[in-house]
């Protein structure tokens, strides 16, 4: 679950029909605003990840298994399975698992009635049609099949988002298997982005910024924040990508993940938008803060401080330093400007890893001594939140290069002209 959608789920059952109607409202209520109608489909710019790249991921995972004393890793439905195999799957009460050994060929454990459907999906998997598939019938337990495929002994890494019941049953059925955390392998692979992955992330960020700018141009005071979000949904449809945007205004912009309270955009008040889209499974995550009309001097001061804090983070981030140092650099700017100390007004960490999950390893936060490496990717999102007044957050994604860090999109220019460069 994306953290910004957490509040929305509490009202999901009662509001779902209304929300669906509102999501489709822009397309049904008449012609799109010119700025959105002018958007062109960019789907062809997204180049899918190749089988050859997944083969390299297998090899890298096997190297990391050797370094971390694992004989295999087990993947169930979720992002890591998609990353390594191209198979998109959820989890249910029936175990489906993909096991990649340190040596030898990978294999699958799945319900017998799913075997043919699984075979259809082997084109994206290294080893393809030769992948072993161990099947089980509805009255049987699949857990022993995991051990059978591995020869009954060894150390098996369990991907961190594996449901507890899966791991528990595998452990019971295979007493000679040692189960450990596989994050050193999965994160070790996923947090270092390839050129193909970076290209998709740059595209996703570019698309999100283009959508934001078009909707900023089309929107106006008097609209509800839901109207604004609906225009973003319509704009994403025009460009051909799946994405959304939350929108908060006035006092509710001081809540980092917003409020369910109905809101109307007013002249001379802060508007804060957030979220992103995916390009072939790779996320963008951008925030912009702006005002329709004339900002107050206090708004201008806060924007300037947040802008400097964001610049300090990207200027600090580079290979060889600890992740927490980046957070400290941004937080110092905000504290020195009188909006500290600690989490007084800057309520959250300065950034998170990003890739095939909007939030993934590692995190730019105090206490995280993980050493940053080249080709890691992060959000850079300092903010100042003043309860009962307003909040300002600026967020762009950045990639760590050999000699520093670079934002994938230009910093916002000002509260009244947020998209000029």
Word description of this protein:
With 421 residues, the protein is α+β, with helices and mostly antiparallel strands. It folds into two domains: 3-30 and 193-407, Creatinase/methionine aminopeptidase superfamily (Creatine Amidinohydrolase); 51-190, 3-Layer(aba) Sandwich (Creatine Amidinohydrolase, Chain A, domain 1), CATH 3.40.350. The protein is built from 14 helices and 19 strands. The protein has helices spanning 6-9, 12-23, 25-28, 34-37, 51-67, 79-85, 115-119, 143-150, 164-173, 183-190, 195-218, 225-239, 297-316, 323-339, and strands at residues 72-75, 97-101, 107-111, 132-136, 154-158, 177-181, 242-243, 246-249, 270-275, 277-279, 282-283, 286-291, 351-353, 360-364, 377-380, 383-386, 390-393, 396-401, 404-407. It has a six-stranded mixed sheet with strand order 4-3-2-1-5-6. Strand 10 and strand 11 form a beta hairpin. The radius of gyration is 23 Å and the shape is globular. The chain starts with 5 loop residues before the first helix and ends in a 14-residue tail after the last strand. 44% of the residues are buried.
How would you sum up this structure in a few lines?
By secondary structure, the chain is of the alpha+beta class.
């Amino acid at each position: 679950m994306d953290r910004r959608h957490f509040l929305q789920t509490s009202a999901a059952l009662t509001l779902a029909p209304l929300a669906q109607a509102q999501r489709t409202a822009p397309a049904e209520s008449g012609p799109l605003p010119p700025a959105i109608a002018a958007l062109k489909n960019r789907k062809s710019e997204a180049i899918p990840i190749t089988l050859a790249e997944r083969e390299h991921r297998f090899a890298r995972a096997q190297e990391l298994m050797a370094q971390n004393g694992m004989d295999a890793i087990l993947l169930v439905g979720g992002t890591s399975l998609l990353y390594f195999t191209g198979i998109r799957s959820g989890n249910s009460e029936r175990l489906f698992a993909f096991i990649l050994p340190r040596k030898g060929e990978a294999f699958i454990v799945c319900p017998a009635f799913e075997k043919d459907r699984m075979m259809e999906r082997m084109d994206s998997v290294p080893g393809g049609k030769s992948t072993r598939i161990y099947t089980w019938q509805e009255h049987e337990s699949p857990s022993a099949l995991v051990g059978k495929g591995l020869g009954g002994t060894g150390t098996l890494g369990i991907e961190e988002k594996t449901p507890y019941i899966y791991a528990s049953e595998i452990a019971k059925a295979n007493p000679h298997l040692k189960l450990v955390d596989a994050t050193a392998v999965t994160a070790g692979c996923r947090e270092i982005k390839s050129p193909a992955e970076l290209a998709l992330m740059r595209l996703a960020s570019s698309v999100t910024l283009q959508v934001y700018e078009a909707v900023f141009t089309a929107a106006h005071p008097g609209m509800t924040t839901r109207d604004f979000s609906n225009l973003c949904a319509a704009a994403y449809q025009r460009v051909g990508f799946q994405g959304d945007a939350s929108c908060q205004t006035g006092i509710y912009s001081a809540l980092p993940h917003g409020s369910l309270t109905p809101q109307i955009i007013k002249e001379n008040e802060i508007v804060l938008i957030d979220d992103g889209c995916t390009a072939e499974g790779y996320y963008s995550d951008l925030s912009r803060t702006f005002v329709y009309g004339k900002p107050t001097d206090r708004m201008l001061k806060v924007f300037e401080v947040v802008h400097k804090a964001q610049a300090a983070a990207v200027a600090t981030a580079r290979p060889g330093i600890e992740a927490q140092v980046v957070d400290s650099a941004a937080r110092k700017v905000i504290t020195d400007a009188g909006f500290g100390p600690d989490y007084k007004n800057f309520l959250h960490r300065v950034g998170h890893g990003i890739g095939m999950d909007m939030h993934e390893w590692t995190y730019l936060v105090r206490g995280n001594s993980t050493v940053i490496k080249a080709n890691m990717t992060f959000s850079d999102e300092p903010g100042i939140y003043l309860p009962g007044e307003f909040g300002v957050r600026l967020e762009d994604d950045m990639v760590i290069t050999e000699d520093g860090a670079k934002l994938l999109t230009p910093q916002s220019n000002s509260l009244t002209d947020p998209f000029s460069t």
